[in-house]
Amino acid sequence: MTDKLLVVRQSILDGDLDECRSSIQQAIDGGMSADSILKQGLIPAMTEVGRLFEEGEYFVPEMLIAARAMQGGLELLKPLLVEEDVQPLGKVVIGTVKGDLHDIGKNLVSMMMEGAGFEIVDLGTDVSPEAFVEAVRTNDANIVAMSALLTTTMTNMQNVIQALKTAGIREKVKIMIGGAPVTEAFAKTIEADGYAADASQAAKLAQSYVA
Ligand code: B1M
Fold first, then answer.
1. What is the mean pLDDT of the chain?
2. Each residue of 3-32: pLDDT tens digit?
3. Which atom of ligand 1 is closest in space to residue 196's alpha carbon?
4. Cα 149 to middle of ligand 1, angstroms
5. In terms of C-beta density within 10 A (0-12 exposed, 13-18 middle, 19 or more buried), how is residue 183 classed?
6. Is the C or the N end of the chain the one with fewer CB within 10 Å?
7. Tens digits of residue pLDDT in 84-94
8. Measured between alpha carbons, how far is 56 from 59 in angstroms, rounded to an integer?
9. In the chain, what is the greatest distance between 2 CA atoms, to the nearest angstrom?
10. If you measure from the C-alpha of residue 181 to the centroid of ligand 1, how many angstroms do you get, rounded to a whole number?
């Protein structure tokens, strides 16, 4: 890794948005491609953030500020990635299910997935089954990611899966779910493809679907 990318990586680990953007700008000005900055700088840094989180060295606040720094940096790269025609790993439609307004965990999952190289279509909170179906169709998504924080709303995940089946597009997508009351067993019951306990595992699970 070049010195410039080491600075990019450290700025993400420190959650330092300004440093992240200025070090990325310096790497761009120095002639490095956006693709290299993304794949050798941002993505490995977010992988490391995920590892630190899983090992209990980072907690949710550290992960959030790291993800925000990464997102701020990614904004600089996005137009260049389009110019370089860099393809994302896949397209994820993500949302918190109908009746549920909790979005802190969902946003974290979304940011970690973006950091892992996915294009994200974030539908927000209180998302109906019809809106998930419509978003999968219009975006030609490969993954549907659902979050729920309430025991009363987690059952709506099954309604989304049913709606995808009815629309005839269930087999087109991998469906992954998560959120505090959600479990692996629940995922099996509703025939989701997978469950992840936290944002770092969610990013890894999504990567396993496109590997
Ligand atoms: Co609410 N709330 N809340 N709340 N709230 C809980 C969830 C609750 C456990 C609090 C409690 O009673 N102890 C309880 C649920 C009880 C239950 O159903 N068993 C509860 C309740 C009851 C309610 C209301 C009904 C309260 C009321 O009005 N009477 C109401 C419901 C509103 C609604 O949604 N319709 C309500 C409202 C709210 C606020 C709006 C005030 C606010 C939400 C703000 C927001 O999100 N923008 C809020 C908050 C903040 C919480 C707590 C305190 C924190 C949730 C949170 O953000 N955690 C929560 C209590 C608690 O958890 N200690 C609580 C941090 C976040 C990073 O974790 O979201 O779990 P989490 O995400 C994790 C993992 O779960 C996972 O990754 C993340 C981290 O790595 N993950 C996924 C999440 N989604 C994933 C998707 C994946 C994979 C992993 O794949 C796709």
1. 95
2. 889 999 999 999 999 999 999 999 999 999
3. 88
4. 5
5. middle
6. C
7. 888 999 999 99
8. 7
9. 53
10. 9
How much of the chain exceeds pLDDT 90, in percent? 90
Report the candidate in 26, 18, 4 with the shortest Cα–Cα distance to residue 69: 18
Q: Tokens standing for 63?
A: 């992960």
Place of tokens 């700025």: 11
Which residue, by CA, sits nearest to atom 12 of ligand 1?
Answer: 150
Which residues in the chain belong to E strands, given as ranges?
Answer: 91-96, 119-122, 143-147, 174-178, 194-195
How far is C-alpha 16 from the geometric centre of its chain's CA atoms? 20
pLDDT of 190 above 90: yes
Nearest to 189 by CA among 157, 145, 149: 157
pTM: 0.91
Q: What SS3 class is residue 102? A: coil
User: Residues 6 or more apart from 60 whose CB is under 8 A from it?
Assistant: 104, 108
- Cross-strand pairs, 92: 120, 143
Contact call for residues 145 and 93 (beta carbons, < 8 A) = yes
Euclidean distance between CA atoms 109 and 148, whole angstroms: 12
Token digits of residue 159: 């309604």
Q: What token pair was written down for 24?
A: 């990325």
Burial 151-161 (b: 16+ CB within 10 A, else e): eebbebbbbbb
